[in-house]
Design brief:
The structure holds two protein chains of two kinds. By secondary structure, chain A is α/β, with parallel strands linked by helices. Helices cover 53% and strands 7% of the residues of chain A. In chain B, the strands form three sheets. Chain B has a twelve-stranded antiparallel sheet with strand order 14-11-12-13-25-24-23-18-21-20-19-22. In chain B, strands 6-2-3-4-17-16-15-10 form an eight-stranded antiparallel sheet. Chain B has a five-stranded antiparallel sheet with strand order 5-1-7-8-9. Classes of the chains: A alpha/beta, B alpha+beta. The interface between A and B is medium-sized, with 18 and 22 residues.
């Protein structure tokens, strides 16, 4: 059984290649962060090394060792200090010429290969083109545009997509013990990033942080100018959390828009459904759209090194004020 | 696990297997030594996934079990204990090894033995070749010195091991020199078999031969697992073979010669060692002048080195020289390393031209030859 949530077509394709003993020597899994690219790579490694008839069985010694990260022939090579260095690639090449120690195939998984330095990527080209016979390389990347074209052309590329809410929900039900409401909320919040959902399910802090940002957000439209400046200040104190908070806000306003156009069942923040339903009619559709664009613009600007505080202040001032009267 | 053994045996075993412990590795368990009891014996093992060394320690086993403990700590600690009986016990719950020796009681934290890689074992039907440890040691010493130390061509960091008919051939080359050594096998081998063994593994085999000089050392190769096994008494050694084909070295060996000098090995070695003092500053260049008998009563070999800072030096050795007079230059360090492993009394040096490699071999012994690249000055 492949312990992968979603990605059925990719699993099927890999199973067929395994059955025909016709695997590529190098794979590149492309897709958004935390949708299970590395998990899929590990399952492929298990299938290649499994000693059981049904591969991967998930129970044999080889599978257990891979799952615990202690298999001598399956190695995940992660970026150090934000970059995959040439020294790590050389180390890999040194090891790769040896036959597998315990299993059948040496598998090297290089997650987020867009983080590799150009030197490291170039150094890997030769190995990627023609790895030693018992070696398989699996690269993953979020953005194929950030990879050298020579890297991409040497791998079989599998472009993975975000999971559907349904698939994420099933994955959460299978792996986590949590009540239905929490699973539903996480499945919707995850936007198909199943890895994030499982992590958030295990770590209370993630949802607590979200509560904080949502509270701040819910307060914003009601505030006058000074109050909005204070919100911007509060937000700006934690620069590393700002991108995440902006994503939450984007989802929030999407919910308001959905609620207003009459699709309240599609909203993400179901735990705040009442609040959303109540405030939605108090905005004009155009206002909501403009603010959503404003949030997106702020995100782009922050990626481009804009002044954090100024950008946030402008954003907070752009926030539409609700019409009074409907709800005194 | 509950075992009792003697401190000296355990310390000896730990020192031997420690040589295979990984210094830095992605797997923390590889920095540990595995202690396992099976069949009334205590086995120590360590591996860096390239080389694995096992050692059987004579012990009294009361209860079977296994654990891994940090190699540096355990080896250093046991060596420092007094030479008495050590009682070992594993605490399964805390995953620690308890040692009791004389007035000391110790508990060392370890990692579960399940995490340790499975060590490969030789298949019983692989053909076994057993040779005397002294022969293995000499062959390994003569060949591994020529193996490359830099990793740019990984296959050259190993030595070619070739089985053909009644002979075993070991060869290694780093591009500047080539060592080839052959030995007679006690029985004929079936097919021709060629594998490349990491030089480091062979050096450990050489060390094991020194430790266990009394029993023949057995070797077997598992082609499909690409591993090679050695067993020397209590020590067992497994190495991964290097993948890739070893370059054809036969073209590098000069055929015929223009000048041939036969001289005393020890004298030649001393002369090169002295010349090295002056060669050090000038890329280790030592110049040899081979002068045939026609010019004097006997032939002569001049060993000269000089550098602008240190000064100059000339040594004159009596030698039997045939052929034309010739001046030829070598890297003194390579020359010295080769002479260090030639144990015959007389050595011959054959040269075809000052720009062609020289051939060094023990006089009257066809089993070893060493080719050294010249330096063109």
């Amino acid at each position: 059984m492949w312990q992968v949530a979603g990605h059925e077509w990719a699993v099927k394709l890999l199973q067929q290649s395994l059955a025909a003993n016709h695997c590529a020597h190098a794979y590149l899994f492309i897709g958004p962060p935390q949708i299970g690219k590395t998990t899929l790579a590990l399952e492929l490694a298990k299938a290649l090394n499994c000693t059981d008839a049904e591969r991967p069985c998930g129970r044999c010694l080889s599978c257990t060792k891979i799952a615990h990260g202690v298999h001598p022939d399956v190695r995940i090579i992660e970026a150090q200090e934000g970059a995959l260095k040439i020294a790590q690639v050389r180390e890999l090449q040194r090891e790769a010429i040896l036959a597998p120690f315990e299993g059948k195939r040496r598998v090297y998984i290089l997650p987020d290969f867009q983080q590799a330095t150009p030197d490291a990527a170039n150094c890997l080209l030769k190995t990627l083109e023609e790895p030693p016979p018992s070696v398989m390389l699996i690269l993953t990347a979020t953005d194929p545009g950030a990879l050298l074209p020579t890297i991409i052309s040497r791998c079989q590329v599998l472009a993975l997509h975000s999971l559907s809410t349904q698939e994420t929900r099933q994955a959460l039900q299978a792996t986590c013990q949590a009540d239905a409401a929490r699973i539903e909320l996480l499945a919707r919040l995850s936007e198909g990033r199943v890895g994030w959902a499982i992590g958030a399910c295990r770590d209370e802090q993630v949802l607590k942080a979200r509560e904080r940002w949502i509270d701040l957000l819910a307060r914003l439209p009601e505030e006058r100018l000074m109050g909005r400046m204070r919100v911007a200040e509060e937000l700006g104190q934690k620069p590393d959390q700002v991108p995440g908070a902006l994503d939450l806000w984007l989802l929030w306003w999407r919910d308001i828009l959905l609620s207003q156009v009459g699709c309240p069942e599609l909203i993400t923040n179901i735990d705040r459904a009442d609040h959303i339903a109540e405030s939605a009619p108090r905005y004009q559709t155009g206002e909501i759209q403009r603010f959503i664009q404003s949030i997106q613009r702020t995100k782009t600007e922050l990626d481009g090194n804009a002044n954090l505080r100024l950008a946030l202040e402008v954003l907070c001032m752009d926030c539409p004020a609700p019409r009074l009267g409907l709800n005194p | 696990m509950r075992v009792a053994c003697l401190q000296e045996n355990l310390a000896k075993g730990l020192a031997m297997v420690s040589r295979a412990v990984a210094t830095r590795s992605a797997l923390p368990v590889l920095a540990n030594i595995l202690l396992r009891t099976a069949g009334g014996e205590l086995t120590l093992s360590a591996t860096d996934l390239e080389l694995a060394i096992g050692y059987r320690v004579g012990a009294k086993v009361d209860e079977d079990g296994a654990i891994t403990v940090p190699a540096r700590l355990l080896a250093g600690f046991v060596t420092s204990l007094p030479p008495e009986r050590i009682d070992l016990a594993v605490d399964v719950r805390t995953k620690s090894l308890n040692l009791r020796c004389a007035q000391y009681e110790t508990s060392i934290k370890g990692i579960d033995a399940v995490e340790f890689p499975l060590l490969p074992a030789a298949a019983p039907d692989d053909p076994v070749i057993a040779l005397a440890p002294e022969l293995w040691r000499e062959m390994i010493e003569q060949v591994t010195l020529a193996a490359a130390t830099d990793e740019s061509r990984p296959v050259l960091t190993g030595a070619l091991l070739r089985l053909e008919g009644h002979t075993l051939i070991l060869a290694a080359s780093d591009g500047f020199r080539l060592s080839v050594r052959s030995a007679e096998l006690p029985r004929e081998m079936g097919n021709v078999q060629e594998v490349v063994v990491p030089a480091r593994a062979l050096q450990e085999v050489g060390r094991a031969c020194q430790e266990e000089p009394n029993e023949p050392v057995a070797m077997s190769i598992s082609a499909q697992r690409s591993q090679i096994f050695f067993r020397a008494g209590k020590i067992s050694l497994v190495s991964q073979l290097l993948e890739g084909s070893f370059p054809d070295y036969s073209r590098l060996i000069p055929t015929g010669y223009v000048t041939r000098a036969t001289l005393d090995t020890a004298q030649f070695r001393d002369a090169v060692r002295l010349a090295l003092f002056f060669a050090r500053d000038s890329a280790n260049i030592v110049r040899l002048r081979l002068i045939p008998a026609g010019a004097g009563p006997r032939g002569q070999v001049q060993v000269a080195a000089s550098s602008a800072e240190a000064g100059s030096h000339v040594g004159q050795l009596a030698a039997a020289v045939e052929g034309d007079e010739m001046s030829i230059a070598f890297n003194a360090r390579y020359l010295l390393e080769a002479l260090n492993v030639i144990h015959a009394e007389q050595v011959t040096l054959e040269a075809t031209a000052p720009t062609r490699p020289g051939l060094l071999r023990p006089a009257g012994d066809p089993t070893f030859l060493h080719v050294i690249h010249v330096i063109v000055v």
